Amino acid sequence: MTLDSLRRVNPVARLLTAAVIAAALVLSVDWVSALTALVLEIPLLLLLGVRLRPLLVRGGLITVAAGLTALTNLLYGEVRGTVHWHFLLITVSDGSVELAIAMFLRVLAIALPSVFLFLDVQPTQLADGLGQILRLPSRFVVGALAGMRLIGLLREDWRYLGYARRARGVADHARLRRAIGQGFALLVFALRRGSKLATAMEARGFGAYPDRTWARSSTFGAPECVLVAAGLAIAAASIAVSVTYGAWSFIG
């Protein structure tokens, strides 16, 4: 399966794959299951055609976020075993170090497939799959799709608001106050546009019937099954290795 074939895979299969891996990893807070999943995910992403440079660049950003999460757990995590450093509310012990490592690997193992499996996913394709394959309520699916399409307009609205405020001579000083006022105006614009869109969709009959028709058919075939099976295999392997190693610690 190459990157071109991955683009043709139904987004629902990508969503299910990422969800299966994430569900397996949140059942236990240990570093063994997270490391196992991470080791298996990287070859899978490369086999799917994800290029090495985007993997390193975006993976670097995810690593920074994971590092910040690990730092919080390191300084304020569970106090267990030998205490290495203590200052006010900060306590670094064996338990907090182990928790920090586990959380660092866990964030990486959950975020990497979630990010790279959704490269080049079109909102319309995802909405078609959610409505036709997962049978989610069409009213919710179509409404969410319309909202996602309007997100891109927020940037243009922000720019136009800035132009209008400069034309009135109120954007030359007090940047913080200007940003707060402009943000409130943008919120008002978004609410008004959302209300108009909801009224227009009601007038056109969106959501009037529980069983609506779809302009594009969304299918779930062999490539989708292979991708979901790979996600199930990664999840099962991570749990099995952790249990065998004796590190499994069910969160319940």
Automatic annotation (TrEMBL):
Keyword hit for DNA-binding: no
TM region(s), chain numbering: 12-35, 55-76, 97-119, 226-251
Keywords: Cell membrane, Membrane, Transmembrane, Transmembrane helix
Record-level GO cellular component terms: plasma membrane
The keyword Membrane belongs to this UniProt entry's keyword annotation: yes
Pfam families the record matches: CbiQ
Name of this protein: ABC transporter
Organism: Mycolicibacterium litorale
